[in-house]
Design goal:
The chain is an alpha+beta fold and 78 residues long. It has 2 helices and 2 strands, in the order ββαα. The radius of gyration is 15 Å and the shape is globular.
């Protein structure tokens, strides 16, 4: 399956660009689909995600501390 990478302009700013993907043959991003599927049951959580993405793009940038590191098995003191 092919995808198109698109910038999510409302969230992108001077500190970071935010992107999602659109699967071939679709007209909405996977992020937009996720929000639409979850906005009723998880209204407050979706609002928090949208707020944080806007903050990352416009104020803080994508700080390393915002992300979970997977597969990092080397001890920090090694």
């Amino acid at each position: 399956m092919n995808y198109e990478i698109v910038e999510m302009e409302p969230f992108s700013g001077s500190e970071a660009k935010v992107y999602s993907i659109i699967p071939e043959g679709e007209n909405v991003t996977l992020f937009e689909k996720f929000v639409d599927e979850n906005k009723v049951v998880y209204k407050e959580e979706i609002k928090d995600i949208l707020k944080r993405l806007k903050q990352i793009g416009h104020a803080t940038g994508a700080r390393e501390s915002f992300f979970k590191h997977e597969g990092d098995f080397m001890p920090k003191s090694f």
